[in-house]
Each structure stands twice: as C-alpha cells, then as structure tokens.
From TrEMBL:
Organism of derivation: Hydrogenophaga crassostreae
SUPFAM superfamilies reported in the protein's UniProt record: HAD-like
Coiled coil: none
Record lineage: Bacteria, Pseudomonadati, Pseudomonadota, Betaproteobacteria, Burkholderiales
Protein's recorded name: Protein CbbY
Molecular functions (GO terms): hydrolase activity
C-alpha cells in the first residue's frame, strides 16, 4: 500500500535549473573568473549532481593540471564560489523567479488529506530548499514534510542512493510502500537503487535522459491524481 510520496526538488517540484545556471554565472563573474556556462553546456554538466561537484568537474575540464594545486585550496575556492552562487540563487527565488510545476501542489494537498506522508530527497543545498518551499508553501512549509534528505545530511550525490535510504529510514517505511517522483536519470538511478518505484516528470534539461526502469513517465503532474498513483504503484510491485 502506498504510504508516502518522496519528491526530488530541482526539475521536479519546479523548473529551477535555469535559475541555478544564472546564479553560477553571476558567481563566476563576481569572483573574477572568466568561466561562463551556456545553456547547452550546462545541460551536459547536469550529468554531475551537486553544484560543488559540477564546478570541480568543469575546473578539471578547463585545467587538466588541476591536481598539481593544493587540494585544500581547490576545495576552499569551490566552497567560496558555491556560497556566492547559493546567495544569488536564494535572492532570485525570494524574488519569485520560480514556481511549482503544474499539478505539484494539488498532488501534495491530496496526499496529505488522504493521510500519506510527504518527504524530500534532493542533492541540493538546504538553503535552496528553504527558499523554494517557503515561496511556494508559506512559512510553515517544514511541518508538511515527514523527512528531508539533502546535500547537508546526505553528502553522496545521486545517482548514489544515500539520500533515498536516509529518507526511508526517517520515514520508517519500506521502499515498497513509497513512491519517488523524479525528473532525471541520476535521480531515477538513485531511487531505484534504494528500491523505490519511481514516477518521472521530465523537463527541457532532462527530456533526452534514459528513463528505463521508471514506473511511468508523464509530461508533468497536472493530470496525475492520487488514485492514478495508487493504481500504478500497486501494478508495479
Ligand atoms: C539537482 C542538482 C543540484 C542543483 C544545484 O539534482 O544537481 O546540484 O543543480 O544545487 P537533483 P546546489 O534534482 O537530482 O537533486 O548548487 O545546491 O548543489
Ligand atoms: Mg532533479
């Protein structure tokens, strides 16, 4: 029986990646770097989950000799860039740059009314989650979620299943009684490796990903009702 919905954040709750991209480029400019990520390049870079990991990956691409630098100095630079990027992202979200994707809010409300638990499983930073969910759900957003896994408490990024395993442990439920809702191949792999049936709602950044193994792929949640999820979930077991 379906008892909990576990939502990814970036790309699933909201189309955030264009806002992340702008924030990365603003951080590079502010910190005096000549890096500038185009939309096409960023779409490729999304194969690397996590903002810090993504910047380090890019740095290694543009400077193959990076390993000769001091590891501590590299990490300090990436941490600083990420701090600046997060501030730009938060500011944009606070100014209303992103809204929930169609159907997300209605499904959350129906699930809660029916007594299901809601949870979050994301690789993104806690500050980003708070900014988005505060703007979409209001000041009391935290009380709506039984568990939140994020970059702060699950450092191994998707496709590693750590964040989903952590959320399942906090929910106290077996994976078979939960459903993950994701937008990307890395997210799908993480959820499946944790044993979770997974519904995919792709977006422009992830439309070309491989979704083999998904419970179902739908364009968005606008025509997905809780009754559908219960039916698909029961048939997938
Ligand atoms: C999303 C991400 C995140 C964001 C940036 O993946 O990879 O890294 O792009 O956020 P998912 P941070 O939706 O699978 O969780 O800069 O805070 O890492
Ligand atoms: Mg995502």
């Amino acid at each position: 029986m379906l008892k909990a919905l576990i939502f990814d954040v970036d790309g699933t709750l909201a189309d955030t990646e264009a806002v992340h991209l702008r924030a990365f480029n603003q951080a590079f400019a502010q910190e005096g770097l000549d890096w500038h990520w185009t939309l096409a390049h960023y779409t490729e870079l999304l194969a690397v989950s996590g903002g810090k990991e993504r910047m380090l990956h890019h740095w290694r691409q543009v400077n193959p000799d990076l390993t000769e630098l001091d590891g501590g100095a590299i990490q300090a630079t990436v941490d600083r860039l990420h701090e600046v990027k997060t501030a730009f992202y938060e500011e944009a979200v606070n100014q209303g740059a992103v809204a929930f994707r169609p159907g997300v809010l209605a499904l959350m409300e129906d699930a809660r009314t029916a007594g299901l638990s809601l949870a979050i499983a994301t690789t993104t930073s806690p500050a980003n989650i708070a900014a988005l969910l505060r703007s979409a759900l209001g000041a009391d957003w935290r009380a709506m979620f039984a568990a939140i896994g994020d970059a702060g408490n699950a450092p191994k990024k998707k496709p590693h299943p750590q964040v989903y395993r952590k959320v399942l442990a906090e929910l106290g439920l077996p994976a078979s009684e939960c459903l993950a809702i994701e937008d990307s191949s890395n997210g799908l792999q993480a959820a499946r490796a944790a044993g979770l049936p997974t519904l995919i709602t792709p977006n422009t950044f992830t439309a070309g990903h491989d979704f083999t193994g998904a419970m179902r792929v739908v364009p968005d949640l606008s025509s997905v009702q809780l009754a559908h999820l219960r039916e698909w979930h029961a048939a997938f077991q």
